[in-house]
Amino acid sequence: MQFKMNKMVVGAALLVAAVAAQAQVAVVVNPKSAVSSMTADQVASIFLGKSNALPNGNAAVAVDLPESAGARDTFYTKATGKSSAQVKAAWSRLVFSGKGTPPKEMGSSADVKKFVAGNPDAIGYIEKSAVDSSVKVVLSVD
């Protein structure tokens, strides 16, 4: 009976991990931003250090979730086509060569939301379930 119960606990944990890995993510900007939508290529360009501007020409202030966040893996895999490890390696090269600074890492979706809400040129991503009127969604990453 104990073995069967352990298998059920492990199965439930794997299910939770699989759901977390498939988190729905929203790319958000300040609600006062003139930017109303962005393509995945535009977002990827900012978060991979290829561009530092929003589509309206303003300098983008990008913020990231911590590496431990499931939404981070979903975001980078689906929006940029790269794994978190590939993104980290790309930023290491840019930083080493003096060509860029990676997005500032925030502690949580709530921190990203607060930062974006308080900065007109900020861009970040959060779980779709965390979206409220303090931010504007410019891209959904499912």
TrEMBL record:
Residues 1-23 form the signal peptide. SUPFAM superfamilies: Periplasmic binding protein-like II. Keywords: Signal. The keyword Signal applies. The keyword Signal applies. Gene3D superfamilies: Periplasmic binding protein-like II (3.40.190.10). This is ABC-type phosphate transport system substrate-binding protein. It comes from Roseateles terrae.
